[in-house]
UniProtKB/TrEMBL annotation:
This is LysE family translocator. The keyword Membrane applies. The chain crosses the membrane at residues 39-63, 141-166, 178-195. Its main location: membrane. Keywords: Cell membrane, Membrane, Transmembrane, Transmembrane helix. InterPro entries: LeuE-type. It is found in: Cell membrane. Signal peptide: none annotated. It comes from the Bacteria. It is a multi-pass membrane protein. Pfam families: LysE.
């Protein structure tokens, strides 16, 4: 039980930090509303779970040796996030009155969520970091898989909270008018922080 509590307490700040996936949740929710963000959020959960299970099964030793692959993922992810920031920046400034009028500028489907996580280098780094922190406890497959579930559930909670917050702000026309631009700008900042 202490392992589970420790893992949750270490993972929550990482999951709730303003990274690319959380900022994309804000952008999608600001553009389309909370309910239409749910398929995107579902897609965001697939790869953290897959990566966590792979690391639990011993892939961390392989990943640590493939630094060039990590750099390539980081570069491709940064380019993808800049493209998404550009689309958010160009999204209409007036909020949709209902979900039928929602902006098509920000894709919100399940597969777009999977693609967003595939291009998110922070995701892989967090998984490897958490398994490094809990290396001793997660040596058994059961504990390693428990950590995979904890990582996924913390990510899910974070994405739901960020989306709900953005959807709540969307109700204010004054704030919603600039929310896509703010989200796009924050995504550019997140890309810059990945390279520092």
């Amino acid at each position: 039980m202490s392992f589970v509590l420790s893992a949750v307490l270490v993972n929550l700040p990482l999951a709730f930090s303003p990274g690319p996936a959380n900022l994309l949740c804000v952008g999608v929710a600001a553009s389309k509303g909370f309910r239409r963000t749910l398929p995107f959020i579902g897609g965001l959960q697939v790869l953290p779970l897959v990566y966590s299970v792979l690391v639990a099964m011993g892939a961390s030793a392989v990943l640590s040796r493939l630094e060039q692959l990590s750099d390539m993922i980081k570069l491709l992810g940064s380019l993808y996030m800049m493209w998404l920031a550009f689309r958010m920046w160009r999204a209409p400034r007036t909020p949709a009155q209902n979900e039928a009028e929602a902006s098509p500028a920000v894709a919100s489907g399940f597969w777009q969520g999977v693609a967003a996580q595939a291009a998110n280098p922070k995701n892989i780094l967090i998984v490897v970091t958490l398994y490094s922190v809990f290396a001793e406890q997660s040596q058994s497959l059961g504990a390693g898989l428990a950590l995979a579930v904890i990582i996924t559930l913390c990510n899910l909670a974070s994405h739901l909270c960020w989306s709900l917050g953005a959807s709540t702000l969307r109700a204010s026309p004054r704030l919603a008018r600039y929310q896509n631009r703010l989200s796009g700008g924050l995504l550019v900042v997140a890309v810059a922080l990945l390279w520092l």
